[in-house]
Design brief:
Low-confidence stretches: 208-214
Order of helices and strands: HHHHHHHH
Radius of gyration: 20 Å
Shape: elongated
Distance between the termini: 40 Å
Number of domains: 1
Helix content: over 70%
Largest sheet: none
Length: about 210
Amino acid sequence: MRTDDLIADLAGRVAPVRPLPPPLIRAMYWLVLAAITVAAGVTVFGPRADVMVRVAQADYLSIAVLAVCASVFSVIVSLTLAVPGAERTPLLRVTAVAIFGIWAGTTVWEVVHEGRGLPVFTDPHWPVCFGRVVLVALLPAVMLFVMVRRGTPLRPRWTAAMATAAAASAGALAVHVACPLDDPGHVFLGHLVPVMAMAAAAVMVRRTPTSTVR
């Protein structure tokens, strides 16, 4: 077959391709789904009795704001990384990591300041919150990975970590609103550790012996 005939044959088989919307628009779609999932989780678990009082207090509100910001920035980063060349600067990634750093640092500082250590064996409630974070995060995580797979991530580990962290942060927000316990050790183990664990698990799943992309 001549080259011209081959090109014509291949061109004749090409199906129309609909370009993906910009990452920010896709992130907004996902955030709506995440908000609905968070609201559903709070409805099922039931909000803490004093939530309206606590939301006006800085220590409680700051954690909620950090969870929201972590989810928002992480989903934007993951969907941006899913499009080759869309990330013009690593600023968004750095910002997302910084937010998680502040979140973790704030929580660890509260644990240290409290001086009672981590209640790994003395608090029977933190595994319940851990499971609830994962449960609420499952649907947003699946939907976000479907959205990411429509693109072509060139940094699969970063993309997987950010996508999972976005969903897990939404789960942590739902549990933060529902959980009546304010003990820093409980908050660290039951609310924050599942976010870190899910993100780490996503990175490990994406790691393959033949992968050369970083």
